[in-house]
Specification:
With about 375 residues, the protein is mostly beta strands. About 5% of the residues lie in helices and about 45% in strands. It contains two helices and 29 strands. It has a five-stranded mixed sheet, with no helix packed on it. The protein is elongated, with a radius of gyration of 28 Å.
């Protein structure tokens, strides 16, 4: 199949081919750069080429829009079938683009591609689906899309059928020079945290779909944002919330702090090492505490819940939690104890709890 848009250019959006009675799906996917899609082994029955609706006005009971209905005679006439998508598409132009800057567009159907034309500081994206789009360098677009439930707050432009949208280059899309920063952390915490650059806006909610790329920290907590990367609005410090040597196959991370970009920052975090003596080997520790709301300006929840499961013969190590007083609930079988521990910033608080005497002491 040669799939073309209303303007005759290759159609670069997801399409599907199935039998006329809807019982057999032959092909699903994206046409290539020339609009070619296939081949398929045809069994002689009528075929329907269809796509998903791109707006609420197009929605159908079947949840799809037919592009073409082809009878056997038309299919037998040629090995390449021309199909025209009768939807007028738009164009996006980005001006004043620095030499060598690579831009991408993400459309409402999830299609991600480079511009069709780059010339004299202008990038042109043709055949763009009507509706909202994201434009920017790859890292920018991919990360904003990973916050997809809130993407509408961060979209770059809205494209109308048959019209051209012109955008000025956004200086945030690339740092002109490298940017250095430092984060004060407790000993041993560097490998236990993610420091994630947030693009677009820190006010748009921060949950990510998947695992976003994290900045590398040196042994002193320093980092470098190389020239050419997008400039973040902020950095979020994320930690694992399920801890202990009996926890496996989980990756539940939460944001503890939102930091500025560049310069020195102290999020007032410490570490905890808790030794439990005189308890059965199947001790279960649960820790819950609240992070101050101003540290999470875009989060819907200011409370971060931690859970740990570990053998009591080993200490529990919590590499990174806010400083202050925390109440831990310890459970061994049916027995439950509550322990209050104080954590100091930039230090590891080492404590010993006696199960038999219900007492806590500092380990020197």
């Amino acid at each position: 199949f040669r799939i073309q848009g209303a303007d005759g250019r290759p159609h670069r959006h997801e399409v599907h081919v199935q039998s006329g009675d809807g019982r057999m799906r032959y092909l699903s996917g994206m046409p290539d750069e020339d609009g070619l899609f296939g081949p398929l082994t045809w069994t002689g029955d009528p075929l329907v080429v269809w796509r998903f609706p791109w707006s609420s006005e197009e929605s159908t009971e079947e949840g799809r829009v037919a592009i073409a209905r082809l009878d056997p005679a038309a299919l037998e006439a040629s090995e390449v079938i021309d199909v025209r998508v009768r939807l007028e598409q738009g164009t996006v132009r980005v001006t004043d683009v620095p030499l060598g800057q690579d831009l991408w567009i993400l459309e409402r159907d999830g299609g991600l591609r480079r511009p069709a034309e780059v010339s004299g500081g202008t990038c042109v994206f043709r055949g763009v689906l009507p509706g909202a789009v994201l434009v920017g360098p790859y890292a920018w677009v991919q990360q904003i899309d990973s916050r997809r439930f809130y993407r509408a707050e961060l979209e770059t432009a809205v494209v109308a059928p048959g019209e051209t949208v012109t955008l000025a280059y956004d200086e945030r899309w690339a740092l002109e020079e490298a940017l250095e920063g430092f984060v004060a952390l407790p000993p041993g915490a560097r490998s236990a945290i993610d420091l994630v650059p947030v693009y677009g806006s820190v006010r748009a909610p921060l949950p990510f779909y998947g695992t976003p790329p994290s900045l590398a920290l040196d042994s002193a907590g320093g980092y470098v944002l190389p020239a050419g990367l997008p400039r973040p609005e902020a950095l979020v410090l994320r930690v694992q919330t399920r801890l202990g040597d009996l926890v496996s196959g989980t990756d539940d991370r939460a944001t503890l702090a939102v930091l500025g970009v560049g310069g020195a920052h102290d999020p007032r975090l410490g570490g905890l090492e808790l030794h439990v003596e005189g308890a059965p080997a199947d001790v279960r520790l649960q820790a819950n505490w609240s992070v101050e709301a101003e540290r999470l300006p875009a989060a819907k929840r200011a409370r971060v819940d931690f859970t740990a499961t570990w053998h009591a013969v080993r200490p529990l190590r919590v590499p990174c939690i806010p400083e202050g007083l925390h109440r831990l609930t310890l459970q061994a079988g049916d027995e439950v104890r509550t322990v209050e521990v104080r954590v100091r910033a930039r230090a590891v608080s080492r404590l010993r709890y006696s199960w038999s005497t219900d007492s806590l002491e500092v380990v020197r």
